[in-house]
Amino acid sequence: MLGNPQLRIFRPTFNLTLVRPGKEQPPDTVQFRIPLEMTKFDVRNYLEKIYSVPVAAVRTRIQYCTNKKRNHLNQRVKRPDYKVAYVQLAQQQTFQFPDIFPEKDQKHEEGSVEEMQEKFMEDERQRQKSDPRRGGVTEWFGL
Amino acid sequence: MSAAVASRLTAVCRQFQRVLTVSSHTQTQYATRAFSTFHSCQQSRMYDSWCFRSPMNNRAVHTSCVRKGLEEFFDLPENWGEQTVKSGAPWTAKQLRVKSNEDLHKLWYVFLKEKNMLLTLEQEAKRQRLPMPSPERLKKVERSMKRLDTVVEEREDSLRLLQTGQERGRPGEWRRNVFGKTFWYRFREHPIPWYLNSRYKRRRFFEPSHVAPYTRLSLEKYLRSKIRKEKREKRNQKSLAAMFPKKTALASDH
Lengths: 143, 254
Fold this sequence. Notes:
Chain A has two helices and four strands. Chain A is α+β, with helices and mostly antiparallel strands and about 140 residues long. Chain A starts with 16 loop residues before the first strand and ends in a 15-residue tail after the last helix. In chain B, a hairpin with a 5-residue loop joins strand 1 (about 170-175) and strand 2 (about 180-185). The termini of chain B are far apart. The interface between A and B is medium-sized, with 25 and 31 residues.
């Protein structure tokens, strides 16, 4: 056997970010933002060993981000580059990016500041509305 | 015949052990979620010490081991859409030093998964142009990971010192660069010796003779600033002593 032993990392510092795809992707494809130093093999091993997700294929590309923006001192500000990985799941699994920010009815607790604010806003909105008996006719029309 | 049976038994036992260790590793991660769903006060992600007091003994509380891996990139579904998510204090180095190496190894992966989840949440919040709920969780996880790193490094350093007497893991030495500055040069691994490495030979680790005056000047500057600092300190102490002479303290005693 030639060469050094296989590189094993005991406590990986790589962070994977699952992102919603900008363009429509096939149902079995998951899109990640990964550090620039990671490779396809690293992504496959990471997902299989740590998350036990069966991976069929991984494709990567590097997204170059602009160095053109300037700050208030007219210095060029670089937006950091990142690598995008398109992971295709094995065993015919599908993945749909979920809606993480659904609308929820805010039930504020009794006597809190937010509840008083909400009540105040509701009263203001009620006052701004015109008289319903006029049937949608504007105030400046008529007597 | 009996030998074959015995060997097969040992192989099966080893497989069981492996399955158990894997399941126990995953259980520690899911133990946190099981606890959080069980608690009446919706506290998810309580990374205080209680989370690891009894990681393996909660099989009765546990719901199920098998979960789709990609669900771990997201928070519990109850927390989707909330404005704030409660979380506990970060781990301190003192709490981490009590843990064994296996526990620390597992905890590192717990932190890693939590950080991945928070980064996913942050990116989705930026995409939807909404505020991220409780962004301080990211800082807490980062600090906990840094402290874990520190503890592991401490243990590795002490082991290495005891076993070999080496102070550093990576060999190096003090060298002088072209600008006359002395710095710690860390060795790299090469497949060929240095005298065959043309790029290394172009790198000069000595100070040319015309640079020596500038080294002397920077040394003088450094010494001057040091002496000025000491003199300033002495002057301050003198003026303080003039403002608050010692005999008043003694006079008040009498």
